[in-house]
Amino acid sequence: MSDIPVSVTDDATAVFVQHRELMFGVVYNMLGSVADTEDVLQETWLSWTARNAGPPLDGIANPRAYLVRIAVNHALARRAAISRRQETYVGPWLPEPLVADGEEAGADDPALRTESVSLAMLVVLESLTPLERAVFVLHEVFGYPHTEIAEIIDRSPAAVRQLGHRAREHVHARRPLYAAHPRVRREATERFVRAAVGGDLAALMEILAPDVTVWTDAGGKRKRAGLRPVHGREKAVRLFDSFARRGAAGAGGGHLDLRYRRVNGDDAAVLFQGEEPYAVLVLDLTPDGERVSGVYVVSNPDKLTHVRREGA
After folding, report:
1. Are 251 and 100 in contact (CB under 8 A)?
2. What is the pLDDT of residues 7-51, one digit of tens each?
3. Alpha-carbon gap, residue 263 to 281, rounded angstroms
4. What's the pLDDT tens digit per position in 166-191?
5. Pair 122, 95: CB distance under 8 Å
6. pLDDT for 302 beyond 90
């Protein structure tokens, strides 16, 4: 690195920083992991600086496209390692949540700037092949045309269109094209949390859909965390009643404090134990917005390292 002129490294750094947010959004939605995304961006940076050891940006007509291509291909390579980890993961696996720093977080918060794909959508994307997911994210989330995606993943436009078609069919079959109004989601989240934390079983029965499913991702690192998804309203109520009792007694010997935050662009709840995050709760609502059809609980401390209490 010492043999590269300072002007070259300065120019390369400026271009990389300019497009880092875009790369983070693309890679995170491909991987569902903040830690792996940061690793991929580091690998992309190393590839980028190695490429720019000569004259600044020499021979690169479109630095943005070049950087996204590097990042996407590093992400595809990283996807295999993530899949191997998931095979030995203890209990349900959920994506690592992107949590805004405070309830009134501004537009400069990375969790709000990143193109928002809900936690529930990320769970659906896990069922796609890596290439299908890459095409879906690039086309459906970031608006890349198929011809440009073909250059990024080194496939023909026809192959990309086929990948995109399969991905859309699969996603739309499992995830109806519906998004609750933010006010509706916030009110539903508050009603659910009041009932769940307060142990109000009647209110829980009212707000939970009969076929509700609860996923709890603790990675084997929280006591008494479920190892399988819980299906059905009655089982879910018993689960949250048990959770409320443990919370009242203090999980691990400490009181749990509740804060509302934006998680992957949606209103959600975050539980803190002292200064440390204990769990993130994200709801999926029925199309009428009246009931909760899914609850995603991420309590694996390894997936909460980016969650901070500041600004609560």
Report:
1. no
2. 556 788 899 999 999 999 999 999 999 999 999 999 999 999 887
3. 9
4. 999 999 988 765 677 888 889 999 99
5. yes
6. yes
Q: Quick one: tokens of 273?
A: 């134990």
The Cα–Cα gap between 241 and 238 comes to 5
Phi, psi of 74 (to 5 degrees): -65, -40
Residue 140: is it exposed, middle or buried by C-beta count within 10 angstroms (0-12/13-18/19+)? middle
Dmax (CA) of the chain: 70
The total number of residues written for the chain in this structure: 312
Provide the 8-state DSSP code for 63: H
Q: Give the whole-angstrom CA distance, residue 189 versus residue 197.
A: 12
In the structure encoding, which two tokens stand for residue 198, read together? Answer: 């307060």
Cβ 103 vs Cβ 261: under 8 Å: yes
User: CA of 128: how far to CAs of 17, 165, 196, 306, 308, in Å?
Assistant: 30, 12, 33, 26, 31
Q: What is the pTM of this model?
A: 0.87
Tokens (6 digits) for 116: 């928002």
Instruction: Order the strands of the 208-217 sheet from edge to edge.
Output: 230-231, 208-217, 292-298, 276-285, 266-273, 256-263
Token pair recorded at residue 8: 């070259």
Kind plus residue range of the DSSP H or E element containing 271: strand 266-273
Structure tokens at 189: 């989240």
pLDDT > 90 in the chain, percent: 60
Reduce the secondary structure of 120-136 to three states and give it as a string.
Answer: HHHHHHCCCCHHHHHHH
- Show the DSSP H helices in 32-60 as ranges: 34-51
Q: Tens digits of per-residue pLDDT, 241-255?
A: 887 776 554 555 557
Q: Is 118 helix (H, G, I), strand (E, B) or coil?
A: coil
